[in-house]
Amino acid sequence: MAGSRRIPVLPLEDEVFEGADVVFLCSGAGVNRRWAHPAAHRGALVVDTSDAFRGDPDVSPVVPEVNGATAARLLSGSVVASPRPMTRATAVQLLAAGSPGKYVPGVMWSIVLQVRLAASSGITVLHFTAAFGLYGAVVLATGCALGAPTLLGLLHDGGAAPASAVATLLGLLAMPWLLGTANRLVRRVPALGRRLAVIPADVLRRSVWLCGISRVVTGLHLWVLVVALGADPMAALIPCVGGFAPATAPASPVVILPDGTGVREALLAVAPVPLLSAPEAAAAAAAGRLVLAATDVLAFGYGTIVGRRPPAPLPSRSPRVRPGTPTPADASRGGGS
């Protein structure tokens, strides 16, 4: 017994799956590969949690906690693969692995490193490429939206700032819907529709707003440098914070130079021109690159340290078993009642 419930423990054989609606195979790849198809042939929806079928073009990837509705719509007698969940340490490693790409000619090298790290966590190249493409779309879209007040202010001497701020807000609100529409259109491609999940709207909203907030916070470093060179703090706020976003957006797709080195600095040097002389604005842009380089070194070092730590066990959400209560394992050994 487990608590007040009796849990039968049966020997694993083909007949055990008769009448089952959903079968979760939580053993190793070899065991799961042995029993997946016998269970599916008896009408069960089989969810494989190992890497036995991960990357198989004939097996759909499903994360039951995220897109369980997709599994519910699948025909009975199917096998679906549940990708291994990514740990926080792996996410930090993937982020830090992109840092060298800013200083090595061509960001393709850091992308290859990130793909290899993702593959070690069970993430296929297709899914990583799709996530990377969506990330690039979010970066470009938020950068252009947040940079609108600064760009229009430079063109119209600040007269269009209120209208551009409203346009920026509307653009950020509409952006998750636009990205979701693009995701649905991509899934209509037969070769991709079965392998790419629908991205929930709340995930898209969260990614857009987090990216926007991070750009605003990161742009403050340029504001600090410009104010230190003698600019008025209030007058420099929008040009610096808003100028950082559109400067980094077009620099990100540059693959010939390291992360667009020189492209971003040239664009950043334009934003403070109404507040500083041209040499001072160029010095602020160059100093900003040094500040961000230092943070990249810290991020890469932190990612390396975190990656070497043994993974901490995740907190269990299962009910706490009272001391002395027999477990299913005890029952299988004849120790339960």
Task: Provide tags for this entry.
337 residues, mainly alpha, Rossmann fold, 2 domains, four-stranded parallel beta sheet, 4% strand, elongated, Semialdehyde_DH_NAD-bd
Can you walk me through this structure?
- With 337 residues, this protein is mainly alpha-helical.
- It has two domains: 1-85, Rossmann fold, CATH 3.40.50.720; 88-308, no CATH class.
- It has twelve helices and four strands; from the N terminus they run βαββαβαααααααααα.
- It has helices at 29-41, 64-73, 88-97, 108-120, 125-156, 161-186, 190-193, 201-228, 233-251, 263-268, 278-308, 328-332; strands at 22-25, 45-48, 60-61, 79-81.
- It has a four-stranded parallel beta sheet with strand order 1-2-4-3, covered by helices on one side.
- α1 links the parallel β1 (22-25) and β2 (45-48).
- α3 (88-97) runs antiparallel to α4, α5 (125-156) packs antiparallel against α6 and α5 crosses α8 (201-228).
- The longest helix has 32 residues, at 125-156.
- The relative contact order is 0.11.
- Mean pLDDT is 71; it is low at 311-337.
- Belongs to the aspartate-semialdehyde dehydrogenase family.
- Keywords: Membrane, Transmembrane, Transmembrane helix.
- This is Semialdehyde dehydrogenase NAD-binding domain-containing protein.
Write the layout of secondary structure elements.
Blueprint: E1 22-25, H1 29-41, E2 45-48, E3 60-61, H2 64-73, E4 79-81, H3 88-97, H4 108-120, H5 125-156, H6 161-186, H7 190-193, H8 201-228, H9 233-251, H10 263-268, H11 278-308, H12 328-332
Parallel strand pairs: 1-2, 2-4, 3-4
Keywords: Membrane, Transmembrane, Transmembrane helix
InterPro entries: NAD(P)-bd_dom_sf (IPR036291), Semialdehyde_DH_NAD-bd (IPR000534)
GO molecular function: NAD binding; oxidoreductase activity, acting on the aldehyde or oxo group of donors, NAD or NADP as acceptor
